[in-house]
Design goal:
8 strands, Immunoglobulin-like, 4-stranded mixed beta sheet, alpha+beta, 276 residues, 4-stranded antiparallel beta sheet, 2 domains
Length: 276
């Protein structure tokens, strides 16, 4: 005969059964989660986002990036703008002319660089994509002229004429102009600061994002893509005062920001240049 004590010793105790149940239960949940994520990833395209309907107008950003889009420095204090100079140098290093000549094409301006034979989406294999990646157009650092950091390695900060670089966020497949008209940037001050901002200079001329840099085919497909830039130089901004600046994109295809998204196609920042 098997005693009650032997039965208790040979079978799991109630706490053991509970732990076994939860172990199996959570392993099942983890398996279901992994399977669901795997199936979802199969529906994604490696080269193009599935949904782009909310990206009618891209956002904009500036360099150097100050705290909360504020750029404050003192002309007479080198340490106040030294970090800004380093930020610009690091950001512009991929734009050096020697590097651009090696990696990118010299494209005809004022027309889209459409590459229908390139691997934009839905390639049959990764190995094939390596041979069909879209090429990119050169954006040489010297195109920024006085704001390139070449003729003036301090980008105007040492003389109270700072340069601000503006870039348009990347959107795959975006065509930001038609009829050969490239989008361009304009900057202005808020009404109360209009007298303080002074004259501006744009580089490249007229502050254009040339059409030859579009469309963008994606980071994975277009690995050498160099984002076009516009530099704005403040030639005679007032000292020791806050200047609220807004820069926006002007295009015959991109719509202006709406009440729901006031910052689509524009960026606002505060500039303060102290004399001491």
């Amino acid at each position: 005969k098997i005693t009650n004590k032997e039965k208790r010793e040979g079978s799991p105790s109630p706490p053991g059964l509970i732990l076994l149940f939860y172990l199996v239960f959570y392993l099942f949940l983890a398996g279901m989660f992994v399977l669901t994520m795997y199936i979802m990833l199969l529906t994604l395209d490696d080269y193009k986002p599935t949904w782009q309907d909310r990206l009618a107008t891209p956002g904009m950003m500036i360099r150097p990036k100050g705290d909360q889009l504020e750029i404050t420095f003192s002309v007479s204090e080198t340490e106040s703008w030294d970090g800004l100079i380093q930020n610009l140098n690091t950001f512009l290093s991929p734009y050096n002319d020697s590097y651009q000549v090696q990696t990118n094409d010299n494209c005809p301006p004022d027309q889209y660089f459409i590459q229908e034979d390139s691997a934009e989406v839905n390639l049959p294999s990764l190995s094939l994509s390596l041979f069909l990646k879209p090429r990119s157009c050169q954006f040489n650092r010297t195109m920024l002229e006085e704001c390139s950091g070449i003729s003036d390695r301090f980008y105007g900060y040492s003389s109270g004429q700072p340069c601000i670089l503006i870039k348009l966020n990347r959107v795959i497949g975006m065509l930001p102009g038609k009829d050969g008209q490239s989008p361009y940037v304009t900057c202005g001050a808020k009404r109360e600061d209009s007298d303080s901002m002074g004259q501006l200079a744009y580089y490249p001329p007229n502050g254009t994002f040339n059409l030859m840099y579009y469309p963008y085919y994606g980071k994975k497909a277009q690995v050498n893509y160099t984002q076009p830039l516009v530099a704005v130089k403040f030639l005679n901004a007032s000292m020791n005062t806050d200047i609220n600046v807004e820069c926006k994109i002007n295009s015959n295809t991109l719509i202006e920001g709406t009440e729901r998204d006031k910052f689509a196609g524009r960026v606002s920042f505060k500039l303060r240049i102290n004399s001491k």
